[in-house]
Amino acid sequence: MQSSLALLSGLAVFLIAVGSSDSQILIQKADREFNAAKNFVVERSTLDLKNSGAKPVSDVVVCHPSDLTSSRAFFEVVQGTSEDAPELEADVQRVLFTATRYVVSPYKIATASTQVKLPSKNTESYQGAGPVSKSGSTVTFGPDTDVQPFSSGALSVHFENNAPFAEAVSLVREIEVSHWGNVYVEEYYNVKHTGAVLKGEWSRLKYMQDARRNGASSIKDFTAVLPRSAHSLYFRDEIGNVSTSSVKRQRERLEVRLQPRFVLFGGWQVQFLFGYSLKLHTVVSKLKGGLRQLSIPFSTPILNLPIRDLTVKVVLPEGSSHLEADFPFAVEKSVEKKYSYLDTHGRPVLVLKKQNVVPDHNMPLQVTYRFASLALLQEPLLLVGTFFAFFCALIVYARFDFRLSHTKSV
């Protein structure tokens, strides 16, 4: 019996071991491909399995290197890191990529090969025991035959990669639902350039004279994609409003270009606030039984931005109950309270936390809750009641005589 197992990582693939190892399984061919063209590594593995025994096998064990546990994201991730000495402003950025030569498996592999796709053909070196070849921007390790179970080996590729290594060290997204017509989104970013650290001084004059040569790997701006209904956009930092952003309205979306006050080189960080509003009817829908459902992207609208620590806070109107949120991946969930204007017992806040977030995680966040339409009258009635009580007290005060003695008229 023979079958094919394809393991795909859209930025990352986390392979979970299920079942138990069985010696009657044979991997006839194991092809693995790494795409290291960006600031993260995409891995794709294809395994051709054969059951050489007489008993049927229902489970297959797929292993994952333990040293990558802290950096895995969606399924499995191999983090490409810049390990060169600090670079000068005009230097190119070089990256050292290391990984296991074989697919780590409890089964014997008849034929195995690994390909590493690079952003360009400019490589410093590539090493690995066994056959190694290079064609254009692709380095191929193998084919290797008769690979024993749990063999790993090692490979490394030292290559040029001028992609901006942007990573959000932390991101806090606050999504506030108001049934008066809008959903307000505020995002607090702490972004770091994790590429080769800049050596020496930085000259804005040299950078402006030839930005391609003097800042090939620098981060100049960020591109965010929003729904076409987004409005009331703002972009701020610690100093105040940043006016270097621009919006390009397309047929079905908005492209927002966010340009910080300074470009980012390796080791530099920037903190900023990005906010916008969405029409309520575009993201909140009514369900049966008085339920409502919020559907909005889980992660950042900024393209190609991995996030180390992501916190999403969904603030629902006061009086909301029966909060539920389902995800195809694991997240840490909790509920807290937030007090704002005219609140009496606080607004429920669903807090979601996740580490190592990549674009594959940016699926629709669907939060279901119960909210009665009559609850909208709470704040207006509270205002009316407050003013009514104030004026009643004022009338009573004006009609009473609080003098200790009456003045006699002559």
TrEMBL record:
Subunit of the oligosaccharyl transferase (OST) complex that catalyzes the initial transfer of a defined glycan (Glc(3)Man(9)GlcNAc(2) in eukaryotes) from the lipid carrier dolichol-pyrophosphate to an asparagine residue within an Asn-X-Ser/Thr consensus motif in nascent polypeptide chains, the first step in protein N-glycosylation. N-glycosylation occurs cotranslationally and the complex associates with the Sec61 complex at the channel-forming translocon complex that mediates protein translocation across the endoplasmic reticulum (ER). All subunits are required for a maximal enzyme activity. Component of the oligosaccharyltransferase (OST) complex. It comes from Coccomyxa subellipsoidea. Residues 1-23 form the signal peptide. The chain crosses the membrane at residues 381-400. Belongs to the OST1 family. The keyword Transmembrane helix applies. This is Dolichyl-diphosphooligosaccharide--protein glycosyltransferase subunit 1. The keyword Transmembrane helix applies. It is a single-pass type I membrane protein. Pathway: Protein modification; protein glycosylation. InterPro entries: Ribophorin_I (IPR007676). It is found in: Endoplasmic reticulum membrane. Keywords: Endoplasmic reticulum, Membrane, Signal, Transmembrane, Transmembrane helix.
